[in-house]
Each structure stands twice: as C-alpha cells, then as structure tokens.
Amino acid sequence: MTRHPLPCLVIAAALCAATGVHARETAGDSEIYFNSGRLHLSEGRPALAVEQFKKAVQIDPKNSYALKGLGDAYLQLGKYDDAVAVLRKSLVANPYYVDVHNDLGTALILSGKREEGKVEFNTAFNDPTNPTAELSARNLAQAYYEEKNYSEAAGWFRTAVNKNRKYPDAYLGLTDSLLALNQNDQAIGFLEAGLKEIPKNACMELQLGQAYFRAGRLAEARTQLEDAHRDQPQGPCGKRAGDVLASLDPAH
Predict the structure, then answer these.
(1) pTM given for the model
(2) Domains of the chain
(3) How far apart are CA 141 and CA 122, in angstroms?
(4) Alpha helices in 131-181 (DSSP H)
C-alpha cells in the first residue's frame, strides 16, 4: 500500500505556521500579562495578580519586573516563603534592581528571618542608586521597633527624616520610638517641626495632640485634635481624633 506523505507535510507546515504566530503573540502577551498583574495588584486583587504575573514569567523567566510583581502579590496573600523565593530570582535576573531589596527584606521578616530581612534593608539603604533611601531606613527602623529596640529604631527613623523631611511615616515612627524611651519633649519637638514641613497631616496632628495631652498641655492638645478631626473627618486618624475629643469632653 502506497503511503502519502502529503498530509504529514501539511500538518507539519501548519504546526510551523502556528508556532510562528504563537511566537509573535507571546512577546506582546508578556507585556499584557505584566500590566494586567500590576492593575490587579494596585486594586487589591493579589490572587488574580499572581495568575497574570506567572504567565508573564512563564514567557520570560528573566523578567525581573514580572518577578518582583509576583513576589509583591505573594506578599499581599501572606505567602511569604513564596515571595522570598521569587524576589530572590528577581535580583538574580537584575542585581541592580534596588527596590527589590526592600520587598525581599519585608518578606524575610514576615517569614521569621528577621536578621536576613534587616540585611536586605541595609543593602538597599547603602546602595547609591537607591531613589528612596528614606523608605529603606524607615523599614529598618520599623524592624527594630517591633523588636523593642527603641533606641536603634529612633536612630533609623531620624535617618529617614533627614533623607526626606516630607515623609510622614518617618516622623510618626520616630515619635513612637521617643515616647517608648520616655522622651516626650523630644517627640513633641519633632512633630512640631514635621507639621511645618507637612501641614495638615491628620495623623501627625493626632499624634502631637496626644503627646501634648501626656505633657499636660491640654489646650494645645485640644487644638491639635480638632485640627486632625477637621482635616480628615472620614479617615482613620481624623476619626480617632474625634473619639479622643469626645472622651475629653462628652458634650463635644
């Protein structure tokens, strides 16, 4: 019986054509998946983000941006070991991607590897290309604060303030550390200076009001709490200020 190779050739040609189309599509698909993952992540859908970033990484395993996105999505899902593994791959793909050190440090600390996490924050802080050194300093400070090493935490929060005097988290963390060290007057001084740099920040106004209250400066405390409540009536700090005011004066 004579065998006819034509159908096989046709199939092979069709497969080659399909492969070529697929190759052309995947280059664009990688970017589409990455952007879709970023959108899901920014809008609080980390599980969907994981799916999209995985597809982007499957197409381009050395895409450090997609790997970082996948690591951040795992972080939001509380899958810290997975986040650590993926973020390490992102740094292998691009050793100069300094912001990954911040995310990796967070993942390590949340996974219980605190010393390794602090090393990553320190690495990020000391990188001369780091555009947000204040964030790295703040992360390191927060790690020490959680360990109740308030003196070390205060030092790093101060560093964050000095790097960026318009970074409210640094002032808030520094104040918490100073209050834990029973340095209320210094905490007040930093908050007063901070509010000159960042006026109408309700969380800082709330914290300053509470610090004034501890110092017995009740009129100033009330003024700051009223400011916080007015500047952020529906936000968490404004609402908290309203609750504190109500406790000070039930008729308020």
Answers:
(1) 0.82
(2) 37-131 (1.25.40.10)
(3) 10
(4) 133-146, 150-163, 168-180
